[in-house]
Request: fold
Amino acid sequence: MVQKTPILKGKVVAITRPVGQAEEAGKLIEEKGGIPYYIPAIEIKGLSNFEPIKKFIAEMLDLQVDYVIFMSTNGIKYLFSAAEELKQTRQLKEGLATTFVIAVGPRTAEALEKDYTVHVSLVPTKYSSEGLLECFEKGEVAGKKIRIPRTSNATPTLTEKLKEMGADVEEIYVYESGLPADEKLKDKFYLDLTAGKIGAIVFGSGLSAKNIFKMLSGKASMNNLQSLINSKVTTVAIGPTTAEALTEMGIKVDVMPEDYLFEKALEALAKYWNTP
Reply:
């Protein structure tokens, strides 16, 4: 007997993704019978200092880089945007062709291969830092040069663990993830939370979790915010790193999907809500 996909029963699900990247997630929520609520917890900006990117491209062309890890589609977008500004797009592609390219998940891999014709050598079974570390644990990485194009505000867990394994790791900052400044948006979100209008919040990163608290810090104390979210909202963490960040902030994680994808998170949320 084929089971129907559990639906979200008209409940409101908050998305913390940046502006311009939440629409697809909103459509998925609607398809599953929910109502999307947009509360971007991260504001993305490109960087003006391209020197580290120039050095990174030169390193690859000199065959000095063993692995390049892409953690998000943003990392890809802003790296190639910077290369275009530097008029080094061809050199970037040539450099990446000389390295073992790893994408954290299928969407990131698809962006590399379809949008920029970059071959992806590996996608981990678990789409997270933990999944990447499991891949490296199977092979000897001591002394290997690993480069990670990403945001300057990233959680350092992956880099620290790889360094503990003896790898030569460097994060190449290609964009920054700031705090949204829209006060009206923050006010409305706090009022809707307090009124119990939001059924669930889906967090896709530790940074989005931390930023939500920073956004609401002027509205209530940390203890009151913890109590408010824990009592009125179902909290969804996409991946253990995000769950750990939430737990450290005193937030109870109700749902974490086995596969760290937004659609799988919605399916796990629907099951949670539909379980007697």
User: Anything to note?
Assistant: The domain at 12-42+180-274 is CATH 3.40.50.10090 (Rossmann fold). The mean pLDDT is 94. The first strand starts at residue 12 and ends at 15. Residues 73-85 form the longest helix (13 residues).
